[in-house]
Design a protein that fits this description.
heterodimer; A: alpha+beta; Arc Repressor Mutant, subunit A; three-stranded antiparallel beta sheet; 18% strand; elongated; B: mainly alpha; 5 helices; rod-shaped
Chain lengths: 103, 148
């Protein structure tokens, strides 16, 4: 596995959590993402907008139980960036572990 | 400090994924709906003279629809059929209903008694409820698997 690159788009924990959820599924509904990240509607909205702006997430609307819902999906570049970001984090932690064991 | 941030970020990812794995339980009316739908399909073959193939297609459609509906209701959409459980569920649905549908069509064609047609439709209803419960469990398992 090649070590990826840290991506500033995932610097905020909530954005990382959003990407972590969306990387596992096809799409996630706004309220479910809010439950998982534990942030308010407006904060989640801002994070999603930032990810949309980066080209990592797409948003779509669909009716569910008579109400309009927003669904978010990770784009292909978003998935790649997230995978790279996680790989970079894991490499960082592994390197620190190895240095600790050597020292 | 950067290392600590990296650890925290990885922890946050793991926490989000495990949160994703907590699928919600289906309400009782969903199972009632599943039972009613399947009973109606099989009853329709017996009393309305529909052919078994059409019934099997309807059942397949209903099973797929239920899976799609379930995953969207939980606020998470994923391709259930990427997962083994999804394919097993569809297999089970066909295993339950194709023989029931064919049997019902045969009874209807040979002019069998009404009580047999009714009993078969009731059996399909019970099987529908069981399948609906299984679909709910399958969905939660899929979510847990997706979280890994």
């Amino acid at each position: 596995m090649t070590a990826g690159q840290l991506d500033p788009a995932f610097a905020a924990t909530a954005r990382l959590q959003i990407a972590a959820v969306l990387a596992q599924v096809d799409s996630g509904e706004f309220s479910r993402l809010r439950e998982i990240t534990g942030v308010s509607d407006s904060v989640l909205s801002k994070h999603l907008s930032a990810l949309v702006e980066a080209g990592y997430v797409t948003l779509s609307k669909s009716a569910l139980a008579g109400r309009q819902r927003t669904w978010a999906s990770l784009t292909k570049p978003g998935r790649a960036a997230f995978t790279g970001h996680v790989a970079a984090l894991q490499a960082m932690v592994a390197a620190a572990g190895a240095a600790g064991a050597a020292g | 400090m950067e290392l600590e941030n990296a650890r925290q970020a990885l922890d946050a990812i793991a926490a989000s994924r495990s949160e994703l794995g907590t699928g919600r339980r289906d309400p009782w009316w969903m199972h009632l709906f599943g039972a009613g739908l399947m009973a109606l399909i099989v009853a329709g073959i017996g009393f309305g003279g529909m052919i078994g193939t059409l019934a099997a297609l309807s059942v397949t459609f209903a099973a797929v629809w239920k899976l799609v509906y379930d995953k969207r209701r939980s606020g998470i959409a994923l391709d259930t059929f990427k997962f083994r459980q999804g394919r097993v569920f569809l297999g089970l649905a066909l295993l339950f209903f194709v023989p029931l549908a064919i049997f019902q069509a045969q009874v209807q064609q040979t002019g069998g008694p009404d009580w047999l047609l009714t009993a078969n439709a009731v059996a399909a209803g019970i099987a529908g409820a069981v399948l609906s419960i299984l679909a709910g469990r399958m969905k939660r398992k899929v979510l847990v698997e997706a979280a890994r």
